[in-house]
Write a structure and sequence with these properties.
The protein has about 260 residues and is an alpha/beta fold. Helices cover about 30% and strands about 30% of the residues. It has a six-stranded mixed sheet with strand order 6-7-8-3-9-10, with helices on both faces. The longest helix has 17 residues.
Length: about 260
């Protein structure tokens, strides 16, 4: 399978403080990774490397076959979909207009840039895939947090990226909103088998059943990485989060609780 991401002996240091240390990881086309760890473990920093937003202090990072430090980052970002629930949009754009800003990778529509008919058609198709067809003309301020999250996924997919990065996409969602988001991700992954995804969270309940791989970060180091069946165990999750935990999986979804009697 084609490699989409590769990190080799990656260190990131900021203001003398190590954020990542000795990170090694490879993500291939069609794989769906969960990136887990406690607050401050380095998840956002690693996702920033994968999204060509951060440079390593030492080591090498290749994104879509291009090594950071030897490539135009702005050009590379056009091939990576990045979903951040803290999207800074304040204008009352319609849902379809927000999705179309993915063409220019801008927060607001770019003046004098009109989307091509095939781009408009693609935006409409993505809205349907993500369950937003009936909301195409709804205004951004009127959307629920869950509807905004699915809109931002559609926006990130407009350039037809090979890699989709999701930075805690369920942040602020209620239970129905979370489940609708997870169902949309499930459908998206089924429809685009070559797409690779990396989803950052510290809640296992937010992981879709289609998750294939996981990486656990602890204090900036990779504690475990590989297929979910070998990585997501009660003992490993407990060590990662410094709690005695019991992990269960039912119909592909995970749940976790503190182990009784401890």
């Amino acid at each position: 399978m084609t490699e989409v991401l590769r990190a080799e002996d990656v260190h990131v240091v900021r203001d003398g403080r190590p954020l990542l240390r000795e990170v090694r990881l490879t993500v291939r086309a069609g794989e769906h990774w969960a990136l887990l760890g406690a607050n401050g473990a380095g998840k956002s920093t690693l996702l920033g490397l994968f999204g060509a937003r951060v440079h390593p202090t030492r080591g090498t990072v290749e994104v879509l076959g291009r090594r950071l430090g030897r490539v135009d980052l702005r050009e590379l970002r056009a091939y990576v979909g990045h979903v951040d629930p803290r999207h800074p949009l304040t204008s009352p754009l319609r849902v379809r207009e927000v999705v179309l800003t993915g063409v220019t990778n801008s927060v607001e529509p770019v003046p004098r840039v009109r989307p091509a008919p095939e781009q408009v058609e693609r935006a409409e198709a993505l809205l349907v895939t993500l369950g937003l067809g009936a909301l195409r003309d709804a205004r951004w301020p009127t959307l629920s947090q869950g509807q905004r999250g699915r809109t931002l996924i559609a926006r990130a997919l407009m350039p037809e990226p090979r890699l989709l990065l999701l930075d805690e996409p369920a942040t602020g969602l209620d239970l129905p909103g979370r489940e609708q988001l997870i169902e949309a991700l499930q459908q998206l992954r089924a429809e685009r088998p070559a797409l690779a995804t990396v989803l950052v969270t510290h809640h296992l309940e937010e992981l879709p059943a289609s998750t294939t791989h996981a990486v656990l970060l602890r204090e900036g180091r990779v504690m475990a990485a590989g297929p979910v069946g070998s990585v997501l165990t009660g003992d490993r999750i407990g060590t990662c989060f410094d709690l005695p935990l019991t992990l269960e999986r039912h119909e592909g979804r995970w749940s976790v609780r503190i182990r009784r009697g401890t």
